[in-house]
Design a protein that fits this description.
Blueprint: E1 2-6, H1 12-23, H2 33-36, H3 43-49, E2 53-59, E3 62-71, E4 77-85, H4 94-108, E5 113-119, H5 123-131, E6 135-136, E7 141-142, E8 150-157, E9 161-166, H6 168-173, H7 175-187, H8 200-216, E10 219-226, E11 229-237, E12 247-255, H9 264-278, E13 283-289, H10 293-300, E14 304-314, E15 320-329
Parallel strand pairs: 4-5, 12-13
Antiparallel strand pairs: 1-2, 2-3, 3-4, 5-8, 6-8, 7-8, 9-10, 10-11, 11-12, 13-15, 14-15
Helix pairs in contact: 7-8
GO molecular function, one term: acyltransferase activity, transferring groups other than amino-acyl groups
Domain N-acetyltransferase: 2-159, 181-322
Keywords: Acyltransferase, Transferase
Length: 330
């Protein structure tokens, strides 16, 4: 049976083994404990002095995973550190248990934001963090160490309902999670441009195009988190004709079914309106399926119906469905 307990200084040998084994999977990753990371000799004390904590996962007395967290002292952010599990334990859910516990501890201590650094070579770790709702944030960090390490910074809001704009790096790293949201919305019968079942590969391909538009500056991507979980998204299409520089198109308002009726859609639309004002767009337009929840949402937010096209599309049952055109003057 796997048990997760607070780490101790006398776990040093296990901590060093877990990190060393993980690093040994990559060429030129060198763990020089005494020369570069002497804190591993007394890791519990190290994190305790920093106001944080470390945990170890054990199975029959054998250490199989670890994680730590500490406050950064700015913007009420906490950093996730030393996230490692044995190779044989990957895919078992242990990493999720460890990271989830560290995140919960940080929230209980008042964290508003969670950040972490991960080596650019650790691609499986990137996928894991992205699945947990983290996105790339900021520039690459260059370490003057024996391993010649380059590190990506990942971050996400820790608590509450938060909507943030994603830059090109964040958009690319969010593709997997956003694809899962899109697939879930289509499966739930959302009035989108796709039929169920939509494969994850097809959904990711769609988000890669969005990421490319974000990088080109022709699209603004907003992402919502609820208690640290990615909950929804919306886009502002800025690629309007040169005669319409004041207009933007609101596209793909998506809220994961698990987060419906919690104010996520409203927060996304209001943040999109705020962002549009900030870049000088004074008119927003959109179209949506008549009779759906989106129509009621936009009506309640002051959007005006400009027209209706009968039988514009087909619903999930294949029946004709009307499309309505809406606008909002900001």
């Amino acid at each position: 049976m796997t048990m997760i307990r607070p780490g101790r200084d006398d776990d040093a040998a296990d901590f060093i083994r877990l990190i060393g084994d993980a690093w040994s999977e990559f060429p030129n990753c060198i763990l020089d404990v005494d020369g570069e990371v002497p804190e591993l000799r007394a890791l519990a004390s190290h994190f305790r002095k920093a106001g944080g904590a470390v945990w170890v996962a054990e199975e029959n007395g054998h250490a199989i995973g670890m994680v730590a967290t500490r406050p950064l002292g700015s913007d009420r952010a906490w950093e996730i550190n030393k996230m490692y599990v044995e190779k044989t334990q990957r895919g078992t859910g242990l990493a999720h248990r460890l990271l989830g516990g560290a995140e919960s501890h940080a929230r209980e201590q008042g964290a508003e934001r969670l950040v972490l650094w991960t080596d650019t070579r650790f691609e499986a770790a990137h996928r894991f963090y992205e699945k947990r709702g983290y996105v790339r944030a900021g520039s690459i960090r260059i370490l003057d160490d024996l391993s010649k390490s380059l590190e990506f910074r990942y971050a996400k809001p820790a608590r509450g309902l938060v909507v943030e704009a994603a830059d090109a790096a964040a958009a690319a790293s969010a593709e997997r999670s956003l694809a899962e949201i899109l697939v879930a919305c289509v499966a739930d019968g959302g009035s989108l441009d796709h039929r169920h079942p939509l494969s994850l590969d097809a959904a990711r391909a769609l988000w890669r195009k969005v990421s490319a538009d974000v990088a080109m500056g022709t699209r603004l991507l907003l992402i919502a988190w609820q208690e640290g979980r990615m909950a929804g998204t919306v886009q502002l299409d800025l690629a309007t004709p040169e005669t319409e520089p004041h207009r933007a198109v609101l596209r793909q308002l998506l809220v994961h079914p698990d987060f419906r009726r919690a104010g996520v859609g409203r927060a996304l639309v209001q943040r999109a309106e705020q962002a549009a004002r900030g870049i000088g767009r004074s008119l927003l337009t959109l179209d949506c399926r008549a009779g759906e929840a989106a129509e009621r949402l936009f009506g309640g937010l002051g959007w005006v119906q400009a027209g209706r096209i009968p039988g514009f599309g087909r619903d999930a049952a294949g029946q004709p469905a009307d499309q309505i055109l809406l606008y909002r003057v900001l």
